[in-house]
Automatic annotation (TrEMBL):
InterPro entries: MoaB/Mog-like_dom_sf (IPR036425), MoaB/Mog_dom (IPR001453), MoeA-like (IPR038987), MoeA_C_domain_IV (IPR005111), MoeA_C_domain_IV_sf (IPR036688), MoeA_linker/N (IPR005110), MoeA_linker/N_sf (IPR036135). Gene3D superfamilies: MoaB/Mog-like domain, MoeA, C-terminal, domain IV, Molybdopterin biosynthesis moea protein, domain 2, Molybdopterin biosynthesis moea protein, domain 3. It comes from Malikia spinosa. This is Molybdopterin molybdenumtransferase. The lineage of its organism: Bacteria, Pseudomonadati, Pseudomonadota, Betaproteobacteria, Burkholderiales. One of its GO terms (molecular function) is metal ion binding. NCBIfam families: Glp_gephyrin, molyb_syn. Catalyzes the insertion of molybdate into adenylated molybdopterin with the concomitant release of AMP. Its EC number is 2.10.1.1. The keyword Cytoplasm does not apply. Pathway: Cofactor biosynthesis; molybdopterin biosynthesis. Belongs to the MoeA family. Residues 195-336 form the MoaB/Mog domain. It catalyses: adenylyl-molybdopterin + molybdate = Mo-molybdopterin + AMP + H(+).
């Protein structure tokens, strides 16, 4: 395991006092290694877990050629351009059991969607395209082509093909795909344990009476929500006062139980903060000032405790900075810890509905409200007040507008990048 100094030495232009967001990404991708243990879980427990090995299809899906429509199956070679076709119905094929009879020319079988195509038949005419006259059906001229409305064996997956790759995060579609292969269990990476707590003497826990100079702990609740959505195992260690002994006990407890520890508060330059001192004492730590807004101060490293090591993310105390640093850096790092191959969220482009002031030389995140214009394209406006203590505007937002490090002012109508909250938080 490389030390933080060794990782820093590998990076070009690493300056902990003015670190570009890209350099943070690069640093974290070198620091964080996936958990190594795997486990077998039933499908209902596999949602949001990460597949630990390629999943090879043990059978083909669908396992046989079958009808895509309710209608009549026949040999498509009988269709002739410009001519209607009359066929005699000699049986019915239902889904779930193959029809065993034999067919001659001029004959067809009534068939249900999903029923196995009877031997030698390759085409299905949907019920609504036919005219039924006693035992016969009439197919109008040029209504379909040979092979229409038949689903081929293995069209979805062929036996022996990889159905999903290791590192895939299992969503609802993947759950269905795995089930379609007849598999009741999958091998996934162990869920990382993430401990989190708030720090600060001014922090009130819910249930405590309001007090002059104090604020209620909101960071633990936003962190709870963000971590829960990610599907890690949560260890809530409450709000810890800014005293060396309490902080040391909390950090030791967290590090003894968790794969990663997330705190908020106490990472800036304030005098009363013991947080940074305790972090330094218990681990290999870097204290960064990131060229970013919000989320300038952030601590990163590893805590060593009882022969084990836990990642530590010390997030700034301001509530919006907590969410932004989490989404920008901690979430991708935790996904990496979870074994996921795709860790960065999808960014989309929208037109800015307003001008925005932006200095080149730092990455900025503004809370935004994205919507569709009348012509269907994506547009975005800022939620207004962007103070990093203003959580209300985060709750109003449905995206973050990400203004890149090198970018300058934004004019009305300029394209900007968005991180949509849907699927992210
Ligand atoms: N001289 C400087 N001062 C500050 C700098 C700086 O670079 N130089 N950076 C500013 C930035 S940016 C941020 S962000 C904050 C981060 O400071 P800390 O991480 O030390 O956080 P605190 O001082 O403990 O708290 C900041 C702010 O957030 C409130 N807070 C903290 N925890 C919670 C919580 N759990 N729930 C709700 N609100 C919380 C706290 O009351 C403070 O108002 O430093 C700037 N200062
Ligand atoms: O992290 Mo601070 O302003 O960037 O809130």
């Amino acid at each position: 395991m490389k030390t933080l100094d060794q990782i820093a030495a590998e990076l070009q232009g690493y300056d902990p006092n003015a670190l570009p967001a890209d350099a943070v990404d690069e640093f974290l991708s070198r620091l964080v290694e996936p958990v190594v243990q795997t486990e077998r879980v039933g499908l209902f427990d596999a949602l949001d877990r990460v597949l630990a090995a390629d999943l090879i299809a043990p059978l083909s899906v669908p396992p046989h050629d079958n009808s895509a429509m309710d209608g009549f199956a026949f040999a498509g070679s009988q269709l002739q351009a410009g001519q209607a076709l009359a066929l005699r119905v000699v049986g019915t094929a239902y889904a779930g059991a193959a029809w065993q009879g034999e067919l001659g020319p001029g004959q067809c079988v009534k068939i249900m969607t999903g029923a196995v195509m009877p031997a030698g038949l390759d085409t299905v005419v949907p019920l609504e395209l036919t005219r039924i006259e006693g035992e016969f059906i009439q197919i109008p001229a040029d209504a379909l082509r040979a092979g229409d409305n038949r689903r081929l064996l293995g069209e979805d997956l062929m036996a022996g093909q990889p159905a999903l790759l290791a590192g895939s995060r299992i969503g609802p579609a993947a759950l269905g795909l795995i089930a379609s292969l007849g598999l009741a269990e999958v091998t996934v990476w162990r869920r990382p344990k993430v401990a989190f707590f708030s720090t600060g003497d001014e922090i009130l826990s819910l249930g405590q009476p309001p007090r002059e100079g104090a604020v209620y702990d909101s960071n633990r609740y936003t962190l709870f929500g963000l971590l829960k959505r990610l599907g890690v195992e949560l260890i809530d260690l409450g709000a810890v006062p800014d005293r060396a002994d309490s902080l040391e006990a909390a950090f030791r407890q967290a590090a003894s139980m968790a794969d990663a520890v997330i705190t908020s508060g106490g990472v800036s330059v304030g005098e009363a903060d013991h947080t940074k001192a305790v972090m330094r004492q218990l681990g290999d730590m870097a204290f960064w000032r990131i060229a970013m807004r919000p989320g300038r101060p952030m601590a990163v490293g590893r805590l060593q405790q009882a022969g084990r090591s836990a990642l530590l993310f010390g997030l700034p105390g301001n509530p919006v900075a907590v969410m932004v640093t989490f989404l920008a850096f901690v979430r991708p790092a935790l996904l990496r810890l979870m074994g996921a191959s795709q860790t960065q969220p999808l960014r989309v482009t929208a037109r800015s509905e307003q001008a925005m002031r932006k200095k080149p030389g730092r990455t900025e995140f503004q809370r935004g409200i994205a919507s569709r214009t009348a012509d269907g394209s994506l547009q975005v406006r800022s939620t207004g007040s962007q103070g990093s203590g203003v959580l209300r505007s985060m709750a109003e937002a449905n995206c973050l507008i990400r203004l890149d490090h090198g970018q300058g002012n934004v004019a009305i109508g300029d394209p900007v990048e968005l991180l949509l909250f849907d699927g992210l938080i």
